[in-house]
Structures are given as C-alpha cells and as structure tokens.
Amino acid sequence: MPVSFGKPAFLAFLLSALLGGCAVGPDFKAPGSPGGGAYGSPADATRPVAGAPATLVGEGPGLRWWEAFGSQEMNRLVDQAMANNHSLAASNATLENARQLVAAAAGRRLPQVDAGARVERQEANLAASGFEPGALPGLSGNPVFNLYSVGGGVSFDPDLFGGKKRAVEQAAAQAEARQRQTEAAHLTVAGRVVTQVLTIAAIRDRIATANALLEEDRRNVALTDARRRAGEGTMVEVLNAQSQLANDRSEIPQLAQELDEARHMLAVLVGIVPADLGPTEFHLEQFRLPDDIPVTLPSELVHKRPDILQAEADIHAATAAVGVAAARLYPSLTLGGTYSQGSPQPGDILSSRFRGFDIFAGLTAPLFHGGTLKAQKRGAEASARAAASAYRQTVLEAFGQVADLLDAVQSDQKSMRNRMEASDVASRSLRLSRRSFQVGNSGILQVLDAERLYQRAQSGLVDARARQYLNIARLYVATAGGWTGDGRSAPQDAAAR
Predict the structure, then answer these.
(1) Could you report how far apart the first and last alpha carbons of the chain are, in Å?
(2) What residues does 486 pair with on adjacent strands?
(3) Quick check: 487 pLDDT over 70?
(4) Are strands 332-343 and 144-156 parallel, antiparallel or unpaired?
C-alpha cells in the first residue's frame, strides 16, 4: 500500500532536513596505535645512556628542541631559517589556501543570496508572435523600448543526505593534512640547520686536528734535518719526514672545500646568499649533549610525528570523500525564490505595479548516468583503502627509523669511549716514539708510524663525537621534538571564521 505523509509529518521531515539532514557514507574513526608498547626491543628500554636516566623524548627541551645543544648562535640561525626559508613560506601559503577552502566549503551549506541590476534596450519581434506590421493600433513596425530592472534571489540546498556536510569534512581533513605537512617542513628545516651547523663544527675540528698534525710533521722535518747536519741522521730520514708533511698537507684543501659547501648549504637554509652568511666559527666543544637522552619511547608518540598525523588526516579526507560520492546517488532538494522590479521608465522602477516574484522548490533525482556515480563511489572507497594502507606503512617506517636511531645513540656512547681510549694510547705511543728517536734508540719511521696511528685516532674521535651529536639531533627530528609557528589550531575551526 502506498504510504502518504500528512501535512504535519511532511513538515517535520522537511524541518529535520533543513536543520542538518543525514550524512551518508562511513564516519571516520582514528586508527589506533600499532601493536607493541615501545619502539625497539625490550632490551633497549633497560640500557642506560652515558649515565643519564631513561627518559621519554619531549620531557626535555620541548618544542624548541635544538636549544638542548646549548648554542645561542645555532638557535639564532634556526630562528632565521624559520623566518626566511622560502620553502617554509611556500608551505605556509599552501596551508592558508587549504584553510580558506574549508571556509569556502562551509559557505556553500548556507543560503546563497544574489542581487542584480540591468538596463536593456529591446525591439519586440511582433511577427514572431503572429502580428503583421501595422496590425496593432499606433504601431507601424516592431516597437523599441527601454527596460530598467533590479532584483535578487535566494537559493538553498538543505543537504538532505549530507553531501555538502561531507565536503566540508573532507576539506577540513585536507587542511589538517596540509597543517601536518607544514609542521613536517618546519621540523625538517630546523633539523637540516642543526645538521649543517654540527657538520661545520666537525669539519673545523678535523681541520684543527690536521693543522696540529702538520705542526708535528714540521717538527719532525726540523729534527731529522738537524740530526743529519750533526752527522747522526741520514737524508733518507729527512725525505721520509718531508714526504709525510706533504702528504698530510694535501688533505687541508679537501677539508676546506667541504667546509665551504657546508656553509653554502647553511646559507640556503636560512634564506640568504652565501656571501651574507657571516662567520661560522663552530666547534664541537661549544655544544653540549642533552641532559636526558631518550632510551625508550612509547608507541603513543606516533601521534606526534607530522608525517603520521598527515597520513591519518589523509584517511579522514578519503573517508569523507566516500560520503560525498554516496550523496550523489540520492535526490537533492533546492529551495529558493526571486524578486524583481522592472519598468520602462527609471522613475517607476520601484513602483509596486512593476514587481514580480517567484518561489520554488525543486527535487532532482539521478536515474541513469551510465554507472558513473556508482563507479565514483567505488573509486572513493578504493582511495580510502589506499590511504589506510599508506598510513600503516608510514607508521611502520617511523617505528623502524626511531628504533635505528635509538640503537645508534647507544652505539655512539660505546664508540666514544673506545675512541677516547684509542686516542690516549696513540698519544702516549707518539710521545714515547719521539723521545726514543731523539735519544737515538729508534728511527724516524717508527715516529711516522706512531703519528699515523695518532692521526687516525684523532680523526676517529672527531667523527665519533660528530656522529653522536648528529644522531641525537636526528632522533629529536624523528620523534617530532618540536615545531615553531602558530599552526597548532585545528583546521576545522576555519569553517566557523
């Protein structure tokens, strides 16, 4: 039996539709944290680091994580990069565009009101209406007249099945994704600036080590030459010492080139040309290790990394897109009205005799579109599944990256202890070899061998110390140690502005 709505029931249905209606398609549910309580293996959580207590990332320097290294000059360069880096400026502009798209999508859910005014000069085609020229009294041809009109109209889609609501949800999720992308860009730039500063410091320390070794080489040349002149040495010993000096000197230009390249990259990051960078007299001894180096990290920190949060927002946007596509399969209702005033004389344009209006309601239902609408819905569902898979892959890669860096931080501590011990042993060996050569108990080759061992030990110590600082900086970046900017507000709020 056909079902008919009485007037009260129909009005109730219409009122509910106008107030919000339903929203077809799946509702978004944030994915839970992956399995496992922490990054890395259980053994990782029990291993101490440099005598520091086991802590969680985020308890120390907060958002401005780079301040944990204790360098005011590096802090200044990071701030300069945040203000001037052109990639960040582009990312910020993209975020603002996404927020405005949310506001635009929200505005389409409200009544659309337009006004217009028009001036026309027309010639009526009487012959097209069946009148012969001159058939009407007082007219010998088609009449020509002016028409002045003003008016406006309003239209409203009550969004019976929530297509526009889902569109706003989709735009807000896309803005959230751009928000997280912007956070990632700021975090990446800060990390790259810190990396370049630490790299410059490491190169300068290598140059200082190489210059100190050159001084030792010059002392060997002078000593062997003095022994030769005194008749206690040979020209072969002098040539061996000179050869070592020339060989060690050849490394300085390469280190200088590496320093210039690092400085140029730092200038690009802070948004200036290399000539304007100024001095960068960094050395690793100027920095300090953070007081609390993280040992174990709970899996809930996946909700700090911008790339994971962006992937989650992409799932949200793809889920809302399914609702947008589903709503196209259902009827749409349009309500509206127009009002106009038109007169052949400007003075009569507001007269009530020349008014007109139109109130309408229209219902449109898709009947046959060749399968397009259903295909679009299936495609949106496939995109949502793809976004979910991309999210899971992003989380897994994040876990792997952080686990690798945690292991690296642990290994760096052991490596530093070993390198320091090797450097002490090589230094004592060099002193004894030189003393033995001075008293004539050994030849210059023994001294040169001891110098090579000492050089490798010193270079290895500088490399280990640089690697320790760099891996800690990378760990802060990998765990979203911080982001500077004003972008912590929820993009959904843009719809209300």
Answers:
(1) 49
(2) none
(3) no
(4) antiparallel
The per-residue pLDDT for range 448-457, each reduced to its tens digit, is 778 778 888 8
As a three-state string, the secondary structure of the chain is CCCCCCHHHHHHHHHHHHHCCCCCCCCCCCCCCCCCCECCCHHHHHCCECCECCECCCCCCCCCHHHHHCCHHHHHHHHHHHHHCHHHHHHHHHHHHHHHHHHHHHHCCCCEEEEEEEEEEEECCCHHHCCCCCCCCCCCCCCEEEEEEEEEEEEECCCCCCHHHHHHHHHHHHHHHHHHHHHHHHHHHHHHHHHHHHHHHHHHHHHHHHHHHHHHHHHHHHHHHHHHHCCCCCHHHHHHHHHHHHHHHCHHHHHHHHHHHHHHHHHHHCCCCHHHCCCCCCCHHHCCCCCCCECCCEHHHHHCCHHHHHHHHHHHHHHHHHHHHHHCCCCEEEEEEEEEEEECCHHHCCCHHHEEEEEEEEEECCCCCCCHHHHHHHHHHHHHHHHHHHHHHHHHHHHHHHHHHHHHHHHHHHHHHHHHHHHHHHHHHHHHHHHHHHCCCCCHHHHHHHHHHHHHHHHHHHHHHHHHHHHHHHHHHHCCCCCCCCCCCCHHHHHHC
Extract the tokens encoding 260: 């210039």
Tokens of residue 217, six digits: 């080489």
**Average pLDDT rounded to a whole number, residues 480-485:** 57
**Quick one: average pLDDT of 25-36?**
74
Close Cβ partners of 247 (under 8 Å, ≥ 6 residues apart): none
From the list 171, 194, 196, 181, the residue with the least C-alpha distance to 88 is 181
The pLDDT, as a whole number, for residue 197 is 96
- 274 versus 216: the higher-pLDDT residue is 274
C-alpha distances in Å from residue 245, one per residue of 82, 119, 217:
45, 94, 5
pTM: 0.77
**pLDDT given for residue 237 in this prediction:** 76
Q: What is the mean pLDDT of residues 93-114?
A: 89
Other CB atoms within 10 A of residue 262 CB: 22
Q: What is the pLDDT of residue 313?
A: 93
Burial 331-346 (b: 16+ CB within 10 A, else e): ebbebbebebbbbeee
Amino acid at position 202, single letter: A
pLDDT class of 198 with cuts at 50, 70, 90:
very high
59 — pLDDT class (breaks 50, 70, 90): very low
Query: How far apart are alpha carbons 187 and 232 in whole angstroms?
Result: 64
Q: Residue with structure tokens 């993280």?
A: 294
- Is pLDDT at 373 greater than 80 in this prediction? yes
Whether the Cβ atoms of residue 154 and residue 113 lie closer than 8 Å to each other: yes
Query: Left if phi > 0, otherwise alpha if psi is -120 to 50, otherwise beta: which for 230?
Result: alpha
What confidence category does residue 11 fall into, taking pLDDT thresholds of 50, 70 and 90? very low
Joined tokens for residue 109: 């859910």
